[in-house]
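[audit] Reproducing an earlier prediction to check determinism. Same input, same settings, fresh worker. If the tokens differ from the archived copy the diff job will pick it up downstream; this log only records the rerun itself.
[audit] input (132 residues):
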Amino acid sequence: RKNKIRYGFVQPTYEPGGDAFDALVDGYLNKYPNVTSQRSIESYKQDRGVGFYNNFFMADVSFFMSPPAATLLAAIDRSKLIFTQRTGDLVIQSAVVRLFLKPEEVHWFRDLTYEHMTLCRKEKCGYLIHKG
């Protein structure tokens, strides 16, 4: 908080949201043209698929609960794209962060590692995994 960081992530990634999600975000930005800086809009539209791997991240929750983030999140929820197009949380969070936070409010933790491992007990899948 003292550094005014509102979102921190460990790994950048690329995951496009798809045509329907892009159309929804564009419609939101057309409806609310002054909701964020033109620079943020242009940067987002230039490469929409750039995102933040979010299995580990740190966030100021109040950011996501306040306008304009909450307004866009509500529009995404009402669209049902999460269910009909399988629009994932990575795409949604990344769009909101990229559109509404200033670059200096986002931090890439380059000195922190995180590994995503799925644990599997022997009785569940031990016969499927080569022991070599």
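[audit] rerun output stored. Observation attached for the diff report: The two ends are 47 Å apart (CA to CA).
[audit] end
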